[in-house]
Structure formats: structure tokens, C-alpha cells
Amino acid sequence: MKILINGGAGYIGSHTTVELYNAGHTPIIVDNFSNSERWIIDRIEQITDKRPAVYEGDCTDTNFMNEVFTKEKDIEGVIHFTAFKAVGESVEKPIPYYKNNINSLLTVLEVMQNYNVQNIVFSSSATVYGEPDTNPLTEISPRKEAINPYGNTKLIAEDILKDLATSGANIKTIPLRYFNPIGAHESHLIGELPSGVPSNLVPYITQTAAGLRDELTIFGDDYNTPDGTCLRDFIHVVDLAKAHIATLEYLDKQTAPFFDVFNVGTGNGTSVMELINTFEKVNNVKVKYVIGPRRTGDVESCWADTKKINDTMNWKSEKSISEAMKDSWKWQKTL
Ligand code: UD1
Hints:
By secondary structure, this protein is of the alpha/beta class.
């Protein structure tokens, strides 16, 4: 299938581009490179021996998106990664978050409708579950009111997609609720590139180990968990990328209108402390850390029930936390 990847130069987008090629599809990238690097495209080519067509522009720009769909006549599906994703920044600057994350989706949906393109996979997040009542989380676990604009854009986007399908539109759509993506491609040519001081755990670990940060602060060790630190479902980014291919192939077999949501995780909860210990052990490197206060807005524990995606799409995560920690470190050392 010819697949448009909006945000294809980003962390999850670049890994998904590689996996699309591996599965015999043709990825076409749209990116404005506001939070990604042009050389990532060269790296995709180094890994796959294929160079995706790249359209540089903004998904909120209807004329630009029309141009892309006109030039690439036979697009069969879209994966929409385009979004700002820094939770703290979204609290300080809500308008660009709503504008970018929501307008880009609305624009893309409108243009898809004009060109009769039916399939769209959307990047949602486990953040829609808020503080879980119980774990593991299933897709019917309640969504909770968002406590920051970033999380709210994910709730709104899921609702937009659902409403569109309910309206009877010629659309087939799946928001994938990602848990915590970590790791890097086994070639170590692509990986996560946080801008500025990382707010996510793994880039903070790797930058501290590399000497770029003085120390890592563990945000709280007094949670009601086995070692007192938060529990998350850390999933290797390559496994997550492969879930997008399974989703597209599944969507393609459905009849419009169609809407459904799926968790993408490993099904295991791992603590922040366990992840740091694993990083140190598999890489034989020390990470200087201190215990600090809890971070506002953090949930105590959050991991996925993955039965729905396992059974429906025959997809499951394959890579271990150890592999992810080795890959993240090898990638960090190339930077
Ligand atoms: C965060 C967002 C989530 C978003 C996801 C996307 C919040 C509250 N949640 O998830 O909405 O979908 O990123 O990437 O920001 N930690 C430390 N020290 C650090 C960094 C993190 O101890 O320097 C801990 C956190 O307290 C948390 C765990 O590591 O328990 C994971 O944190 P992070 O990587 O930021 O992911 P989430 O908070 O789960």
C-alpha cells in the first residue's frame, strides 16, 4: 500500500517508515521538521536502501495537503503522527498545542475525504486513561478528564475520529493508544531526538549516562508499588512501529465507516527503578540518580491489557526491556 506518514521524520514515524518498507509498503513522508531532523531521511535510506518521497510542509495547511494528495495520486492510507508532545509545555502554551494537534488532524481528514482515502491510523496515548482505577488497562477502561492540554488533544482527536465514523463518513480509523515507547532501531541509525532537556525518562537516563546531564531525578519513591517508584508499560519502538503496519493491514480489510481503538503495549508493568537497574546492568554503565519529589500529574501505575490487539491483529510485542535499553544506549553514543 502507498501510505502517507505525517510526522514521518519523528521518533515513532521514522521507525514506522522503516517497518513499512520491510513489510513491502511504500511510505511517503510529510514533515515540517519543526521537531525532527532532515538527516533522519538519509538514515532511513541507509537502513532500507530506499528513499521515501518527502513533502516538507505543515499538515494544518489545506493547500499544501491537497497538493500532496494530488501529486501522490493513489494514497491508500495515512498514519498521522503529527503532534506536539511535551506535556509541561502544553500547560504553558495551550494554543499551539490545540492548533497543531487538532487542526492538523481536521485538515488531513478533510483532504482524505476529498480524495476518497479511507484508512487512517492515529497516534493516541495511554494518557487518555488518566489515573487508572485498576491495571492492566483494557480498551473499555474509562477514559478520564485530561489534566493537561496535550492529553486533552488526544481525547478530542479520538472523539473527532469516532464522530466522523458515526456520521457515516467514508472513513476507517483506529487510534492506537501507545504506552511508553523506548529504545531505538537495531542499526542505531535512528532513535529518539529530544529537543532541549528531555522530559521523558529514557532520554534522561541515556543523557545522564553520557555525561550530558549531572544526575537523573527519580520523581518519587513513595508510591504504592513494589519498590515505591512508578510502574509503566515500556514498549520497544520497533514493536510499536510494527503495530502500525498490522493496524493498516487490518483496517484495509474493514468496511467504511469503521472506528475502533487498541492499546499498544507489552502487557507488563516495569518500575522506573527496575528500568534504571536494567540500563546499568545490560550496558555496564552507571547512572547517577537522586530521589526527588513526585512530578505533578504523574500516575502511579499504568500498563496495558494487550489481548484485543493480540487477538484481532495477531500482533504482539517481541523485544525485551533489556534490548530496548541496549539500543537506547548505543543510539545515544552515536549522538
Ligand atoms: C508522559 C506523559 C504522557 C505522554 C508520554 C509521551 C506525563 C505526566 N505524561 O508519560 O502523557 O503520553 O509522556 O511521551 O508527562 N521519570 C523520572 N525522572 C525523569 C523523567 C521521568 O523519574 O527525569 C519517571 C516519571 O515520574 C514516570 C516515568 O519516569 O513515572 C515515565 O515518565 P515519562 O517518560 O515522562 O512518561 P510518562 O509520564 O509515563
